[in-house]
Amino acid sequence: VMVTLEADVQDPFGQAVLGNSITLTPGTLTVGIDAGRLRVHCLTQAGAEELLRGEMNRRIAALTRR
């Protein structure tokens, strides 16, 4: 399943951290980042739904907030 995720963090560093964190999650692979949108391949629909719920996105945004 391919999904597009809008990054909560706006700076390139935070987006890279988000993409790498997603890729470290089993069953997911960030295949591209463009203008704050991440393209992610998920092995299952359940994995895609979990990603789109946004918990990882919120955590990385909080981590990179200055």
Span from first to last CA? 33 Å
What's the multimeric state?
Answer: single chain
Radius of gyration computed on alpha carbons: 11 Å
- The parts where pLDDT drops under 50 for at least 5 residues are none
Structure summary, number of beta strands: 3
If helices are DSSP runs of H or I spanning 4 or more residues, what is the number of helices? 3
What percent of residues are in strands?
25-35%
User: What's the rounded overall pLDDT mean?
Assistant: 95
How would a textbook summarize the main sheet? 3 strands, antiparallel
Q: Give the overall shape, derived from the CA principal axes.
A: globular
Order of helices and strands: EHEEHH
Helical proportion, percent range: 40-55%
Which class do the helix and strand fractions yield? alpha+beta
Mind explaining what this structure looks like?
Strands 1-3-2 form a 3-stranded antiparallel beta sheet. The protein is an alpha+beta fold. The longest helix is centred in the first third of the chain and has 13 residues. A hairpin with a 2-residue loop joins strand 2 and strand 3. It is globular and about 35 Å long.
Features:
66 residues, alpha+beta, 48% helix, three-stranded antiparallel sheet, 3 helices, single chain
Question: Helices and strands in order, then pairings?
Answer:
Layout: E1 2-6, H1 12-24, E2 28-34, E3 37-42, H2 45-53, H3 55-64
Helix pairs in contact: 1-3
Q: Nutshell version of this structure?
A:
The chain is an alpha+beta fold and 66 residues long. The chain contains three helices and three strands; from the N terminus they run βαββαα. The longest helix has 13 residues.
